[in-house]
Amino acid sequence: MTTTGDDNGHSEAAPLPGQRNFFAVSAVLFTRTCVIPYAGLMSIYIARHGQTDWNLLGKWQSRTDVPLNKTGYRQAEKLRDKLAEQGVRFNVAMTSPLVRAVETAKVLLEGSHVIAQDNLALIELDMGDYEGRKEKDVRAVLGDDQYDQWRSTMMCVPAPGGESITDVARRLQPVVTWLSQQIGSVLIVGHQYVNMALKAQLCDRFGRSDLLEFKQANDEIDIWDHQSRQSIGLIKLDEF
Prior knowledge:
With 240 residues, this protein is an alpha/beta fold. 33% of the residues lie in helices and 17% in strands. The protein has nine helices and eight strands. The chain has helices at residues 53-57, 70-85, 99-108, 135-142, 144-152, 165-171, 173-179, 192-203, 208-213; strands at 28-30, 35-37, 42-48, 90-95, 117-118, 184-190, 220-225, 230-236. The strands form two sheets. The chain has a six-stranded mixed sheet. Strands 1-2 form a two-stranded antiparallel sheet.
C-alpha cells in the first residue's frame, strides 16, 4: 500500500502475543523536530514495511505479496542505523508473513541474534474487490464524493468483500496478549492498516480522528509504551 493506505493500497521468546511498558534505551527517541528522553521496562517498536513499487503506483496491495523496491530497502537500512545509534536492542520480534514485511524485519534486525516470528494475524487488512486496483481507478468508478466519504471512514467501512479495521483488531487480540508477556524492546513489522488496528486495540481508541493519527509512512517506526498504552516517540527519516 502507499502512504495512503497500507498496503494500500496492507524465535520466539515468551509465549505468543501482548503489551508494553517502556524499556527504553537509556537513550533518546528522536522525532523529526525534537528529542524525547524516555526510559522504562518495555517498549514496542511498530514499523511499517518499506516502500514497494505498488506504493509508488498508488495500488491497493493488501494481501498481494509485493517485495520491497530499492527505496524500501534503503529506508529499512537507514532506520536500522537510527536504531543502532540510539542503542536499541530488540529482545523479540514479530512480523507479517508477507515478503515486504519479512524483508523489512530482516534488515532492521541485522547484527542481532533475534529472528522475527511470522504471524498471520499481522497480515494486511483485506481490500477485497479493490485489491490490485489503483486508487484513482476506484475513485473514478465511485465518484469523488462517494470515494472520499468511504476513505474518511478509515476502513471502519470495509471495501466490498474485504475486512474492516475492527475485523483486523479482533484478529490481533492474540498479538496483544503475547505482547503483555514480553520484556525489553519488542519489534513489530506490519502494514498501514494492521498497524493502525494494533494501536487502536492497544489503547481502545477507534474513532476516525484516532485512526487518522495512527497512520504511518513507509519510513517510520512508532514507539509505544504498553503500560501507558500510548505513543512515546517516533523514528522518522527526513530524506524520504
